[in-house]
C-alpha cells in the first residue's frame, strides 16, 4: 500500500483540482467561463487552482477573443494527463 | 459535475487519510503499529491524521495490550464507512 500511496499526486488532492483535471482530460480544451460554471466555483478559487496546476506543468492556456471579449482556453498538457491517469490508477488500486 | 464535487469529502482529500480509510473499510480493525507500517508514515503524521478522522466521527479506537505492551486498535465507524463509500462513488462518477 505504501507504494500505491506514493503514486497519489498531491497536486490532485484538492477536489477542485480533481474536478478541473477530470474535465480537461475528456475535453481538448475548456474556456474559463465554462470551467467556472461546470465546477460552480468563484473566480478567485478557480484562478488559484488553475495557477497551481500550471506551475506543475499540468495545465496550459491560450488567450482568445470571442465577440471581441477576451476569454482563455485551458487544456491539460501531456505531462498533466499522464500524472492524472497515474493518480487515478493509484486510487483504483488502493480500493482493490 | 458541481453536484458530484459536493459529494467529495474534504476529510478524505489527503492521501494519508485516503490510505487509512481504504485500509479500515476492508479490515474490521488494524492496530497502530501495523497501520504505520502499512502506510509508511511517521508517528506524528499518522497520529494527526487519525485524530482528524476521529474528530469527524469516521474512526474509533480501542486501547489494547499485547504481551503487556500497549497497542491501540483502530476501526472505521459506520458513519465513516458511509462517508468513504460516498466519496469513492463521487470520484468514480467524476471520471465517467
TrEMBL record, chains A, B:
GO BP, one annotated term: regulation of DNA-templated transcription
Domain Winged helix DNA-binding: 16-95
SUPFAM superfamilies: Winged helix' DNA-binding domain
Highest rank taxon of the organism: Bacteria
Name the record gives this protein: Helix-turn-helix domain-containing protein
Lineage, highest ranks first: Bacteria, Pseudomonadati, Bacteroidota, Sphingobacteriia, Sphingobacteriales
